[in-house]
């Protein structure tokens, strides 16, 4: 007889951050420490805000065919909100969140509807981002967002679906 052990090697889950706000930088830092592959999407002149991350994309052109679970956080602080949301909603992701007020999110959603984004796609957008912890500082907001990402990921795991590492 022969025993065969199979250990699947799956791609790491990705946290993709659009924007370079203080919240975006904090999310990137905490996500990297939590074991996620981190991608920062921001204009070239804003990329220096991020420390050590796995990948940088100039602008908001997200790849649509990457393997692994994706969790997208849009934290652009009014600099490219609509462009970043259009890019985020164009790809498949487990979680898409917008850092901003409900009022701003509603305004952006109305604008996206006028641009042809379906209600089904817009329903994937979580705004405001994160769990309601009463967070105030960028780091606290980032913790609430990462906590929500982990909750989404673990709920998926509990349904028996494969989890990317």
How is the topology of this model organized?
Elements: E1 14-18, H1 22-33, E2 37-42, E3 55-58, E4 70-74, H2 81-89, E5 95-98, H3 102-114, H4 119-122, E6 125-126, H5 138-158
Helix pairs in contact: 1-5
Shape: globular
Task: Name the structural class.
Answer: alpha/beta
Runs with pLDDT <50, length 5+?
A: none
Number of strands: 6
Lateral strand order in the biggest sheet: 3-2-1-4-5-6
Largest sheet: 6 strands, parallel
Amino-to-carboxy terminus distance: 32 Å
Number of helices: 5
Task: Give an overview in words.
It is a single chain. This protein has 165 residues and is of the alpha/beta class. It has helices spanning 22-33, 81-89, 102-114, 119-122, 138-158, and strands at 14-18, 37-42, 55-58, 70-74, 95-98, 125-126. The longest helix has 21 residues, at 138-158. It is globular, with a radius of gyration of 16 Å.
